[in-house]
Amino acid sequence: MTTSQSPGPRVYRGLNHTEGIGWIAGMTPVQAFLLIGVCAPALIAMSRNQWSAALSWAVFAAIVAVLILVPIHGRPAFRWLADLVMFQTGVLMRWSPWQSRAAAGLAGDRTEPDLPGVLARLEFPDGPEFHGSRICLIHDTTEGRWGATAKLTHSGVGMLSDDECERLASRLGSMLVGLGHREVVDRVSLLVRTVPDDGTEYAVWRDRHQRPDAPALARQVTAEIDRDVASVSVRTELFVTVSGTEEALRRPAKAAGGGITGRAFALYRLLEGVADGLRGLGVQSVTWLSSTGVAEAVKTGFNPAAAAGLSFRHLTSPDPDGTVGLPISQAGPALAPTPAARAYHHDGYSSVAYAVQPPESGTIFGSLGPLLAVRTAGERRTLQIHYEILSAAAGARVVKSDRFRNNVLVDAKAQRGFNTTAVDSRRQRGARDQEAAVAAGHAVVRFTVASAITVPADWNVEDHAARLENDASGRFHLLRLELAQDSAFVAAALPVGIGLPREKRAFDS
Fold it and tell me: What is the value of pTM for the model shown?
């Protein structure tokens, strides 16, 4: 979590803390209870002077404690075992492989989504008209969230100075705090992904604007340049997804007429404010997507090569029914075979997704850029940041709990004669400062960052994954989300607002 402030906003660096830090000597209550349970037989045997039995139970308890407490690549051994059992169960029961209705030759409704994995819980109803178009609503039926996605145009931050990046970070903090005060939209997901550009759009434009009287030498030189540049050129797509909970939308939706239309109008009232905030970040255009736009964004997420055909389709002729675009029923991949533990295979491509862990000391605006630096023509990199703005009451509970926990730990060490580490002191000061910031009217923002790399299936995906890890080395820690690569791909590469886990209880935050 981090704290944003407004007015005079900026992002506080050094006020970050990690969710999941346990109350009891760094353990969560579940871990503490399990540890007490495995240690109890040894203590009972000692109380009865049964020293051989006590020694045996102590060895057993030590082994179990290591399995429960020691993290291995972000997860304790018991959690790895549970995840492996669920993964293998899905494979053996044939729940994990997926095939689209179209690939199976089955007809279906054009408005009914056909998506694998966690995407199966999403619905995509069209809302009422908004500024001349119908915006697609993204309804997460599991978490009870309603959202909308927009495609953005931005010139990038690679050439900006540190002061300009600082101003953009301040404006981002202002936008998040402003959304938090409205208490309707509480999640914002920013997705940036590179697009291997084969020059299809330019070729169509050239054919339409070719001059028949152009000199032959000029034609030859232009063709050679196009052939050399098109194979290595890279474009960048930028999306934003905003969403709010059913609880937050229920009252304004009821006032607007109820149902899907009422929820759409409740979201629409916030969209212009979001667009204005994004323009303050240097965004040049904000286009809220219809169902066909969302379908194309999801389709090209699974299959980057589909972008060329969709662009040609837009530039040539509309569909027979008078619309241009892909129906939501065709948004998913044609085939997603049995998932692998360390990669996700889809539509002739392979992807590896990571959770990006920023340093505890914080980072600066634009520092994630190296994760998008394409090293080989044909690969695609994606980066998505999910923000959740906590309400004032929830933020106050979180920082109060964090401050109390850190004070208890430091005081307990001091009373028992243990030295207080620099990490303990820094966390104590950070928790105190964070509570003061929230009391002054600032906001607590949860966030998570996911990144993925996608290459054709016949390439060695491990080589390209290693290059992504090298680009993050020394800046961020990449945690490969093994046994959950299909869900991690959604969090890193698709603009549907899925990727931030539910908030833990206050004493676990």
Answer: 0.83
